[in-house]
Q: What sequence folds into this?
């Protein structure tokens, strides 16, 4: 999976299409990511203790990686990700500006 934690991504599809956010967590085995501020769902929680109130909590949910594209930190455009070997190490590069990510 080419998108990793702390990357900035832009949504291509879904209810939040066009919005950007930071990747909180990635799930490579499922092919999904969790993005801060996107795909927010309201979850109801029951009161657990005596006198405590129930509430609605807003929680970010997973989205498929195919619905998000990386925003390049160098050129600030959405682009695909490629790889280049530099000094024996594999580096991610932007396909538009060829800058390292």
A:
């Amino acid at each position: 999976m080419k998108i990793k934690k702390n990357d900035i991504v832009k949504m291509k599809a879904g209810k939040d299409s066009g919005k950007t956010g930071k990747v909180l967590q990635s799930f490579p085995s499922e092919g999904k990511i969790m993005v801060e501020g996107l795909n927010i769902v309201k979850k109801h929680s029951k009161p657990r203790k005596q006198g405590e109130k129930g509430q609605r909590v807003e929680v970010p949910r997973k989205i498929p990686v195919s619905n998000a594209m990386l925003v390049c930190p160098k050129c600030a455009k959405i682009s695909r990700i490629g790889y280049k070997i530099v000094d024996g190490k594999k580096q991610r590069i932007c396909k538009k500006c060829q800058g390292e990510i």
